[in-house]
């Protein structure tokens, strides 16, 4: 399963209790739609840290990164090690 | 005495260019706010809203919500705020119970509005309603058409707002607050906090509770402003907005303060004061706040929706001397401790807290029986148990035992239990709060299954999610063959809470802070 589908499956399973995922667009605001609240954001953080092996810093915890399935997918993919390099793109010296 | 919206109007006439609402990328001045609110009021009259009508507003942390509130008040109508997490079932119930003549809501909430009830829907935010598949009015168009609202000529005893609050019975109760109630409380709070035009509140509290509502109206009455700092779901962002918008005051509940301190809220943010309400402040959090914010005054407050908001405050100087106190009566309020016969007790004796003052509600909407139960013998019977010291400082020893306090929300167990009991395969349900480090309490549901084949933890959570806002959802559902009862046959919630605290040790994460 690709990153977006894994995130979507978690959101639908954990926050929507398996129902109504088809009505949730990847760009919908999870907070404005009532899908998550502030503890829900913390659950999302633990989920992406455990599932993708990335570290979420305090400064990463913004609506730009966590407020929709699409934005969270982009955030995770930016943080993921590049294939074969074993290094996170964010940490590579320019 | 004035009407509630007159307080901001005076400021607008006096200093129209001062900011009233500041956001990350916009400022609304008092002049703009007054002009838009009056135009909206004229628009509401044009579409048929009359003085005294109830207008439900789905709350959002946005300037339009403040404009809508003042617009409704200028129209002489009554604000009924509703939380942003709209569920069709409870929304329909609220519209019918209030017999609302209009609803102001976001476009995204339109699908939740039941057909035909009520007749008028006003969409906030959108500039074009022609593409919407319902017959709706556009708030911006109503404002753009301008006009002057007809003078409603209201007495100060007229209702200004109805706040729905959880009770021990199933559906929430509508607390009726008049202009006199709210103005009295606003003036009292402005005086004891010493609010002035340079004060700006970092507003992340929900507007649909009296705490958020009183922060709004006190800052407007003082000529100060509201800084819209987003959601505590993103605490680092909120901390940076507090700095960027130069907020001077932080109205908080325990869980939000805790997360902001975690995210780096510190002395450099130059907060003049932090107010705390919505449940007791844990002593560890108080110590941590005082260490992290040494030059910020920390003001503990106690109140109830039925009292417009505030009943008592603890001046910061008294904090070290009176640990554990909920404070003394605010100006204009009298607090007494009474025994079961209603007789006032001397200092040191434990009894029920009874309050009187102009801020005490008119009553519960369409509920004379419950009104008579709490408004009697010279005051508001709060249901809270406490004692007073010789100087009149209140110490609460027990609050209304059944109510669950989670992340600043007050949740009546019966409302959740009735939803669970309406689901297939359920015989009985009892909902309790268990201690939680961040939220204060979280919700656990004990369920007796009538047919274990058709129910499960997930099925119960699904069913609750369809009918309840997220903050009322249990974080766990535990099955039990039979609910424990006391010797006299009453549901034994204390035992259930103890069992739930044990069972919940290995549970999933809690949900339910202030969004």
Task: Describe the fold and architecture.
The complex is a heterodimer of chains A (94) and B (515). Helices cover 46% and strands 0% of the residues of chain A. Chain A is mainly α and 94 residues long. Chain A has one domain: Orthogonal Bundle (Non-ribosomal Peptide Synthetase Peptidyl Carrier Protein, Chain A), CATH 1.10.1200. Chain A is globular, with a radius of gyration of 13 Å. Chain A starts with a helix and ends in a 15-residue tail after the last helix. Among the domains of chain B are: 194-295, Rossmann fold; 412-506, 2-Layer Sandwich (GMP Synthetase, Chain A, domain 3). In chain B, helix 13 (457-467) links the parallel strand 26 (440-449) and strand 27. Residues 505-515 of chain B have low confidence and may be disordered. The chains are: A mainly alpha (94), B alpha/beta (515).
């Amino acid at each position: 399963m690709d990153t977006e589908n894994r995130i979507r499956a978690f959101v639908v399973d954990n926050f929507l209790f398996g129902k109504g995922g088809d009505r949730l667009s990847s760009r919908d605001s999870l907070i404005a739609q009532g899908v998550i609240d502030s503890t829900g954001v913390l659950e999302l953080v633990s989920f992406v840290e455990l599932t993708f092996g990335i570290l979420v810093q305090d400064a990463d915890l913004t609506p730009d990164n966590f407020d929709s399935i699409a934005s969270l997918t982009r955030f995770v993919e930016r943080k993921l090690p590049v294939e074969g390099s074993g290094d996170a793109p964010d940490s590579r010296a320019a | 005495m004035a009407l509630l919206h007159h307080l901001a109007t005076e400021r607008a006439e006096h200093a129209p260019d001062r900011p009233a609402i500041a956001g990350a990328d916009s400022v609304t001045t008092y002049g703009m706010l007054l002009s838009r609110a009056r135009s909206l009021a004229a628009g509401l009259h044009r579409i048929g809203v009359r003085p005294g009508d109830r207008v439900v507003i789905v709350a959002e942390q946005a300037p339009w919500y403040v404009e809508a509130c003042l617009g409704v008040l200028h129209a002489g109508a009554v604000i009924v705020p509703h939380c942003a997490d709209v569920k069709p079932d409870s929304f329909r119930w609220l519209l019918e119970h209030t017999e609302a003549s209009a609803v102001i809501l976001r476009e995204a909430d339109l699908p939740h509005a039941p057909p035909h009830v009520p007749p008028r829907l006003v969409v906030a935010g959108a500039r074009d309603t022609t593409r919407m598949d319902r017959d709706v009015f556009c708030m911006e168009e109503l404002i753009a058409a301008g006009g002057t609202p007809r003078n409603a000529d209201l007495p100060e005893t007229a209702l200004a707002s109805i706040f729905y609050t959880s009770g021990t019975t199933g559906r929430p109760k509508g607390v009726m607050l008049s202009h006199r109630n709210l103005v009295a409380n606003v003036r009292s709070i402005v005086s004891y906090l010493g609010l002035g035009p340079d004060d700006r509140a970092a507003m992340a509290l929900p507007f649909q509770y009296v705490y958020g509502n009183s922060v709004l109206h006190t800052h407007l009455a003082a000529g100060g402003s509201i800084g819209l700092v987003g959601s505590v779901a993103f605490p680092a962002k909120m901390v940076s907005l507090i700095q960027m918008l130069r907020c001077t005051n932080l109205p908080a509940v325990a869980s939000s303060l805790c997360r902001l301190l975690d995210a780096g809220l510190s002395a450099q943010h130059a907060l003049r004061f932090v107010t705390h309400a919505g449940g007791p402040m844990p002593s560890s959090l108080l110590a941590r706040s005082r260490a992290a914010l040494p030059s910020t005054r920390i003001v503990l407050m106690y109140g109830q929706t039925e009292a417009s908001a505030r009943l008592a405050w603890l001046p910061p100087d008294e904090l070290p001397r009176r640990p554990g106190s909920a404070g003394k009566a605010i100006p204009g309020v009298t607090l007494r401790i009474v025994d079961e016969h209603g007789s006032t007790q001397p200092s040191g004796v434990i009894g029920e807290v009874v309050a009187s003052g102009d801020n005490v509600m008119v009553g519960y909407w369409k509920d004379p029986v419950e009104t008579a139960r709490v408004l009697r013998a010279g005051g508001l019977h709060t249901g809270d148990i406490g004692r007073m010291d010789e100087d009149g400082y209140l110490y609460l020893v027990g609050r209304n035992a059944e109510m669950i306090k989670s992340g600043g929300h007050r949740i009546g167990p019966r409302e959740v239990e009735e939803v669970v009991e309406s689901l297939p395969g359920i015989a009985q349900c009892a909902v309790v709060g268990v201690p939680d480090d961040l939220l204060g309490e979280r919700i656990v549901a004990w369920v007796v299954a009538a047919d274990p084949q058709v129910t499960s933890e997930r099925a119960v959570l699904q069913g609750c999610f369809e009918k309840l806002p997220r903050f009322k959802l249990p974080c766990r559902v535990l099955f039990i063959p039979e609910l424990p009862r006391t010797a006299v046959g009453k549901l034994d919630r204390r035992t259930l809470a103890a069992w739930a605290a044990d069972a919940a040790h290995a549970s999933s994460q809690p949900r339910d802070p202030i969004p």
